[in-house]
Structures
1.
Amino acid sequence: MIIHNVMEEAVEDILDKQWENLAVSCHCPECKMDVLALSLNRLKPRYVRNQAGGMYAKADLMTEQSRATILTAIVESSKVVSACPRHSGGMIQK
Ligand SMILES: [Zn+2]
């Protein structure tokens, strides 16, 4: 049985498109993953069990309202990561 969180895909998709425009202090892949993880913690997961359910839930997440909610979570998370980047190349070590 495979359980899949479609919210993960939706956040990844929006983050990919907005990443270059986000006011983060660092645009390295590690900081991007931190923003992704933090955003997912802020958002309600949408678990689905099969392909058809996934399509439906995904369409649901692509409404303007959902996209705005996701983008807000991403912006808030990028502020947290900007204030305290945890990438290995930075000043602060993990
Ligand atoms: Zn970084």
Note: The first strand starts at residue 4 and ends at 5.
2.
Amino acid sequence: MANHRTLILLLFTALVGCFASADSAPTAAKPAAQELTPPSELALMMRAMAIHADSVKAAVKRDGELPPYPKAFKNLLEAEPTKGMHIDPITFPTFGKDYQLKLDRLYKVKKGERTQAYNALVQSCANCHGTHCPGPLMRIKKMYVATE
Ligand code: HEC
């Protein structure tokens, strides 16, 4: 289980870092070079946020229980970003609080409204990534649950 998770994390990192190119597959050498510097507190939180969203998606699809409420994401606005990364003083906190509101809402709504609440959460990821760190946008766009 632990190994499996590590592998997923590695694959994940290779595919979705901030500087992942949107239109070409990453080469084997590129992600390795990126990993020479340890990921920032914010980057690690993002990976956890993406894993959390994926497990919410799985739960929503099979109408099961949500994963435990992720209290750690309360520190989103305080987490240390990658050195040299520009964090906009207006849009980052605005989109960050919106994500937190959508997260709280997801845990409050009735089961029947979860798909919509989950998609609103994914939208809040996409909104922030429109102005910060565009690399993961392709992946984020695939995270929505189709509604009929
Ligand atoms: C408030 C803005 C904001 C929100 C909301 C946000 N992100 Fe991010 N995301 C960032 C920034 C900024 C970085 C770059 C962090 C760094 O390198 O320190 C990042 C990095 C990432 C990364 C790359 C992490 C790595 O390994 O380097 C992924 C994947 C990611 N975000 C996915 C998501 C997902 C999925 C969501 C929603 C569940 C989300 N983000 C919500 C701003 C945001």
Note: Residues 39-141 form one domain.
